[in-house]
Amino acid sequence: MRRFSWFNATSLTFGFAFLYLPMLILIIYSFNESRLVTVWAGFSTKWYGELWQNDAFLDAAWVTIKVAFWSSTLATVLGTMAAYAMVRAGRFKGRGLFSGMIYAPLVMPEVITGLSLLLFFIAIGLDRGVFTIVLAHTTFAMCYVSVVVTSRLVSFDQSLEEAALDLGCTPFDAFRSVTLPIIMPAVISGWLLAFTLSLDDLVIASFTAGPSATTLPIKIFSAVRLGVTPEINALSTIMIGIVTLGVITASLITRATAKKAAADERAAAG
Amino acid sequence: MSRKVLILLPYVWLLVFFLVPFGIVLKISLSDIALAIPPYTPTLKDGFWTMVAGLDLENYAFIGAGAVFAGFAAIVLSAVMFRIVYPRVRRALVPDTPNGFFDTAAAALTALAVALVNVALVVAVLALLFPALQSFVDVPDFLYFAAYLSSLKIALISTFLTLLIGYPIAYAMARAPSHWRPTLLMLVILPFWTSFLIRVYAWIGILSTEGYLNQLLLSLGIIGEPLTILNTNIAVYIGIVYTYLPFMVLPIYAALEKMDDSLVEAAEDLGCTALSAFWLVTAPLSKPGIIAGCFLVFIPTLGEFVIPSLLGGSDTLMIGKVLWEEFFNNRDWPVASAVAVILLLILIIPIVLFQRNQEADQ
Fold it and tell me: Which residue on chain B is closest to A221 by alpha carbon?
């Protein structure tokens, strides 16, 4: 074991300070009494109250959550299917194109994806609204889900599935009772990833949302263009809080499941 | 039966919502702007040949310096193709002989073939663009060209800065006691889950003229009057480094963590100083991580929109922002589409390189 030098300690300290100070400042100043965001005038939670009164923000938040829920659910189903097809279906016509289409959206600039989907919706005469945002988010999120699920599918033992088939399962039964439980952690993290991506997306939503639907990021973006406001600070704090709680809970659950799995394995071996 | 459904459903979904929309972008990029909704004249209605005759390359005329571009493209393309083709040719011709005559012959052959293909390609592109170039000689619209160059510049510089800041962090994480590592890893990943928009927004308050940074520096007496950082390219660099740092740290950390510590010890035992052991052992071993990290930062930065529009000034030219403004403010859909097509063409090179690097790594 090499010693942990002062150089490493310094770079960690500065690195994490750089990553976390901006958000910390944002959180602290969301409790600022004054409307002037850069002058501290005492502790207050009044901006949270005002946020609660602001119907435009609440509506947008509701739309965002709806979109995120539906698109991440759809994306999880489609992405898992795509991953399964890629890993298990063997060779089929157009496999190259398929894998290209799965990986391309991951590196595609959002402005291009958004623009092309908008032009598509207009070309087929689909009115833009919540529905079109769900379609757009599903499309790019399913690619992330399929990458996450693929890595899990590749690593697990295929003979388990074959054993189930030999013992008389239909392929669907084998998938449901053997494969799905094994890849479940990946499917869940895929869903979470899709949900966060959808919550967070500004660019694609701006292109594909009609005048009738506004998501929270669109709302925040138009407010932020005019400068820093305490309400946005409060909103950001709430969002950071939710994400932090979610990530910590998820990692605790993962750790617990991993421990349990290890214990089960030991019990089975012993 | 079920296997077919399994493949077909996601396949058709991607075809409809990913590939077809691109076809439409390509089509619209070749049509005229019209004062209508949608604001372009459809060109596919009157049959294919009328459409081809009426296709409008004006939107691509901003490649006013098209020749420059084509030359650049030909050089890069040749270099990339050579790197891809040459090892295969060599393997096919001379399976396991060391360097020698055949080797040179293979290289020469490949170089010739690649050069021919690319010259043909560039000639074709130029021939296609020539009419448009001619009709637009008096209207040199260099905005787009400048925007592409400036996007490239900003993406390159910020990738380098991210590497400079990210590497020591990844290194320290990999050297930290092993029971710290899961926590450190989570601390790096956590911002990635937090809203991108909020993380960019956090910097507005810090960097503005009466922001926290200026307050701090003024109160410490380091500066006499507030610095203007917000709405300049410096703010854009800071924003990019900040938001993309996890993308750089994670792959480098993954590479360094796999590394065997005893290699460095061996180098030091053999008389290396700590610094030269780093350059001779650690740095080369972390190269795959560095390359992956650089691509992961460079590719999305090139088309970035949120950061330049919130932190940059009116003179910050980035192609994502130009596309957005062309679309939403000027309502010029054909030009916006053309900008998107070119951006995609530029991105293909780094994306292909990245894919090859990932495959080689596995």
Answer: B197
Chosen domain end from B97, B124, B140: B140
pLDDT at B47 over 70: no
Q: State which amino acid sits at residue B75.
A: I
Per the structure, the count of domains in chain B is: 2
The reply to whether residue B17 touches residue A12, judged by beta carbons under 8 angstroms, is no
Claim to verify: residue B113 and residue B101 sit in the same structural domain: yes
Tokens for A239? Answer: 């969002």
Q: How many Å apart are CA B327 and CA A260, to the nearest integer?
A: 53
pLDDT tens, position by position, A165-217: 888 888 888 888 888 888 888 898 899 889 999 998 999 999 999 877 889 99
Q: Crossing angle for the helix pair A216-224 and A55-88, nearest 10 degrees?
A: 120
Instruction: Give a yes or no: residue B194 inside a domain.
Output: yes
- Cα maximum dimension of chain A: 72
d(CA A145, CA A170): 25
Q: What CA–CA distance (Å, rounded) separates B266 from B102?
A: 39
User: Based on C-alpha coordinates, what's the Rg of chain B?
Assistant: 25
Q: Residue B40: helix, strand or coil by DSSP?
A: strand
**Between B112 and B8, the higher pLDDT residue:** B8
Distance from CA of B22 to the nearest CA of A (A): 6
Could you tell me how many CB contacts below 8 A there are between chain A and chain B? Answer: 233
The rounded percent of chain A whose pLDDT value lies above 70 is 98
The count of other CB atoms within 10 Å of the CB of residue A262 is 10
- Segments forming the whole domain that contains residue A261: 230-270
Other Cβ atoms closer than 10 A to B54: 13
Task: List chain B residues with CB under 8 Å of A233.
Answer: 205
pTM, entire model: 0.80
B89, amino acid identity: V
B44 domain-assigned: no
Q: Which two tokens stand for residue A253?
A: 């659950």
Q: What is the pLDDT of residues A43-97, one digit of tens each?
A: 888 888 888 888 888 999 999 999 999 999 999 999 999 998 888 777 777 888 8
- Check: CB of residue B32 under 8 Å from CB of residue B21: no
Question: Residue B100 above 60 pLDDT?
Answer: no
How large is the ipTM?
0.86
Q: Which CATH number covers residue B149?
A: 1.10.3720.10
Whole domain around residue B162: which residue ranges? Answer: 143-331
Rg (CA), chain A: 23
Please indicate, yes or no, whether residues B198 and B260 belong to a single structural domain of this protein: yes
Contacts of A104 in chain B (CB under 8 A): 18
Chain B nearest-CA distance from A195, in A, is: 10
